[in-house]
Batch of 3 targets.
Target 1
Amino acid sequence: MDSITQAVLGASIQGAVLGRWQGRKALLYGAMLGTLPDLDVVINYGDAVANMTYHRGFSHSLFVLSALAVLLTWLIRRYRPNPDYSSRRLFLAIWLVLITHPLLDAFTSYGTQLFWPLMPIPTAWSSIFIIDPLYTLPLCIAVGLGLYHGLRDRMARAPTVALLLSSLYLAFTLTGKQMAEQRVEAELARQGIQAEQIFSTPTPLNSLLWRVIVLDGDYYHEALVGWLDRQPPRLERIPRGTRLAKALADSPAHARLAWFTDGVLRYDQIGERLIVTDIRLGMTGYHPFRFDFASLEDGQWRVHEQIPRLPFERGDVDSLQLLLSRIWRPEVEIPLLAWANRLGQPVAVLGSTCVAQQENC
């Protein structure tokens, strides 16, 4: 999730557990501690694929963060003891603030390595968009009230109430995900399509309209499913370019990307470049993680030693507004196929001066 959400989540948790004793400071301590796991973004792992797939790694491990909670509890008790509350309560506050950061991240589509250094496929429950105002708003209100009024008397319960509301909203997003997948599965059965894999995620800034991806050999299908839909979902069949993946069979970077995304990738030959796109994130046709993996030289693909990331097109306001209108008006036609076909169109070729590991390359 975004940094603001992680900060107010951490502040709300520490306010709920220690606000009675720490007052407003609990909100500030929780906000700082709640964003701590994301400091791994300052580490350069070598290229764009490495930076993507090692992010949310060791710093988001439940094992590492639990050990850190023990260490911080010991240090605070040793150098800043407070007899008003127990070491157990202090540990509980620190531990909850730390581990809820990666757990919330795991509800997004990115992929979070909760069990690092073990190597299962990163967890991506993908039931909430990376920015969702409805989740964040109750937490922001509680933190604002706590900073203004303090955390005593009637305001003492504000963080707890906000955490309850946000948690209920998360449960609602899981219900929406199940609804979307069940409707698509029914349509797949009607059309006789054998899905290799189904991936679903909310469309930007909401949890009412869902984007469902169905992998089907050399193709994938995309559908939009909303709570207000009365008709079966419309499946758009889109080429995935999997034949191009053979050129990357010996690429450790591609193997790691395929592991990290669980294979939800698309391949495009654009001119003499082989572009690999993580189609889980963003919105159809506008995906933040696209990588320039190889160049065609004398009829053979040469895999780059360092893999650069293509410039990220966030999409235009008109497209986003069209998607949002689709929530309330199921009859609105969304040109998913046209948007998806943008991925095969020419892009600005990365020059030799582009630094591969920079996020904006």
Note: DSSP finds ten helices and eight strands in the chain.
Target 2
Amino acid sequence: MNTHSDPLHPQRTASAEAPLHRISIVIPVYRGERTLPAIVAEIAPLATPGLTPDGNLFVVSEVVLAHDCGPDHSDRTIEALAAQYPFVAPVWLSRNYGQHAATMAGMASATGQWVVSMDEDGQQNPADIVHMLDVAIGASLQLVYAQPTNPPPHGWLRNTASSVAKSISTRMLGNKSIGRFNSFRLVDGEIARTLAAYCGNGVYLDVGLFWITARIGHCPIALRNEMDRPSGYSYFRLFGHFWNLVLTTGTRPLRLITIVGFVSMLLAFAIAVFALYGKYVGDVPIQGWASLVTVVSFFSGTILAAMGIIAEYLAVTMNIVMGKPLYVVSSKPVRPRVLA
């Protein structure tokens, strides 16, 4: 039996009765034509049974590549990898559904006792999976997030915006343990498959995991630089992910509207008291036009913002009620459009 050694952690010997932990790795693929071969080659040694630093017996039983219909020729790369490696299992989506939907499509097809989700850009080292497994088994956890020990290899603006978004989501979810979520996750296989089967359209993946997990932990890892691939996320798409996260956290944003309404009423009352006091006590003439425009603009903006948030909730609910699928799996890959 092959054992994967780690110079930073002494290798232990597994007992004859030690259970074999089968791991399925799910990778949503959008622009993986250049990066996937290197990542799968790094995973290949883990497809032989080995030991974690804490002596847990494991094997990567499959790598599920969920093709999310990107603009490059990732489909041909996936086909080549499936022919080269027996543990590679393609999942073909009918169109582009987004990273979270593609991840859940892969989770639905995963068969392992544990399911690991990771990106296609090479930032996350597959060798760190063994450390995440040790954390999960040692603390009896259902979900383990990678906790980067170094800043993500992005610009300061994107890193700052990401930090603020995660801080806001932590407060909305009311759970600090899930606030430091990451796309590099180790999930109990039953939970991953259950979530993929019952999660509705528009639900943020990590919010869905929060709904059905109770024991959540984190494992410190170091991120690597991205491989040679353009980012598939513009700031507009990243904001869309954040807004989707806000809408699916529950009813707290709606409660925030109620609070803003009461604050607005108190502010209006304070403005009225100030105006009357100035008129009858201080003998100060009240200029009606400027104050009227200010008050009307403020409260009109508050009402429109509240109506917009409620409309967004109704849109999410409508998609669920109408049965809009989270994803649809095809029997064959969807080729990228060839421009003349």
Note: The CA atoms of residues 232 and 332 lie 23 Å apart.
Target 3
Amino acid sequence: MNSKAICIFIYIAGTMLFITAVAKFVSSAGSARILQNPDPILGISFRHVFWIVGAFELFVALVCFFSKQISLGAGLVAWLSTSFLFYRLGLVLIGYHRPCSCLGNLTDALHIPPQAADTAMKIILAYLLIGSYATLFWLWRQKRRLGD
């Protein structure tokens, strides 16, 4: 792994988070009935969850795009993707087995089956988790080497 590959990962992670944030904002502005339903984990409406999570995703995306500190971007991506992992594990633990509504009703507008969108979001989550932790590990090793 080298610094160019890390920069590419951070940029791609930022792009993915930017796209999912925009999807959440667009979906939350709609009138779908599910937006009024409470999230099974957080207990607040999906509309509010989309706004809150979309804001976090947008913030992390902007850090990935504009911060000169690679470790900050990687750390925030690791934190956010770990949060998403624990959320998904929570859904499994409470027996919620419907596809994640991570992109809201935008998948309906684009005629993407919910299961396909859910699978794509799992792949993106795995990419963000593995990439961010690998980046942090590489940066840690580099720092240790320079310190020795």
Note: The two ends are 20 Å apart (CA to CA).
